């Protein structure tokens, strides 16, 4: 509550602490949190390394444990923080998987529009890609936050921070069609009246369901890339940067706290520029 973290972030931090508990149980170490020392944590890190966890996953777990022990320190449960000298592994900046515009068109084209769910799924994909939403932002999207007359939607991002995101006419028309022709015929469960995208039972979709929808479509097309809803968000950002969009504007639309998070897309843009020069510049022939 003090850090205004989203429920998803809280859940992730709890999983990090649970992993430490699992290690202690497997290693048959009976110990209370206030007696855990630096060596215990080093042994735990050695264990997760041997399990084959990536540097990125290890850094994420260390971040969760640091948060936990910092809390114990603030609550005067411990006097010394055992994570003080704990270093995160160095992680390289991994370029995200990105779909081409043609691949996105083919994914949307593969949707079976003969079913109500297909029409809903088309609106979902057009919204994620058209607005660059996180999957949690999509499932929580509210009808009362659709400002189509102004060309914006309001989304609630990480840390419950609200932002206005421009919405194009294609995503807008797909949502409007879904609301008027599909959603209107669903018996809505109490508490979901303001949620845009619903399942057949009239309840809010889960994040897993969005993953499943996209996985099934890419499998149907035989696309070999590892694709998730986040891939559509990455593609949204990349296509904007490649098209010459201002990085600050992209940062605002994505809801990134730091511009450095958005700058990853400039690396993709440089690759795009290089390939364009090689292809079209007379001195590269």
Word description of this protein:
The protein has 285 residues and is mostly helical. The chain folds into 2 domains: 7-74, Orthogonal Bundle (DNA polymerase, domain 1), CATH 1.10.150; 101-278, hpI Integrase, Chain A (Orthogonal Bundle). 54% of the residues lie in helices and 4% in strands. It is built from 12 helices and 3 strands. It has helices at 7-26, 38-50, 55-74, 101-109, 116-131, 135-139, 169-181, 207-221, 229-242, 247-254, 259-262, 264-280, and strands spanning 146-147, 152-156, 162-166. A 3-stranded antiparallel β-sheet has the order 1-2-3. A hairpin with a 5-residue loop joins strand 2 (152-156) and strand 3. Helix 1 crosses helix 3 (55-74). The chain is globular.
Write a short abstract of this structure.
The chain has 285 residues and is mostly helical. It is built from 12 helices and 3 strands.
List the helices and strands and how they pair.
Blueprint lengths: L6 H20 L11 H13 L4 H20 L26 H9 L6 H16 L3 H5 L6 E2 L4 E5 L5 E5 L2 H13 L25 H15 L7 H14 L4 H8 L4 H4 L1 H17 L5
Antiparallel strand pairs: 1-2, 2-3
Helix pairs in contact: 1-3, 5-7, 5-9, 9-12
Summary tags:
285 residues; mainly alpha; DNA polymerase, domain 1; hpI Integrase, Chain A; 2 domains; three-stranded antiparallel sheet; globular
Strand content: under 5%
Helix content: 40-55%
CATH class of the largest domain: Mainly Alpha
The CATH topology of the largest domain comes to: hpI Integrase, Chain A
Strand order of the largest sheet: 1-2-3
| pLDDT < 50 runs, ≥5 residues | none
The chain-level structural class is: mainly alpha
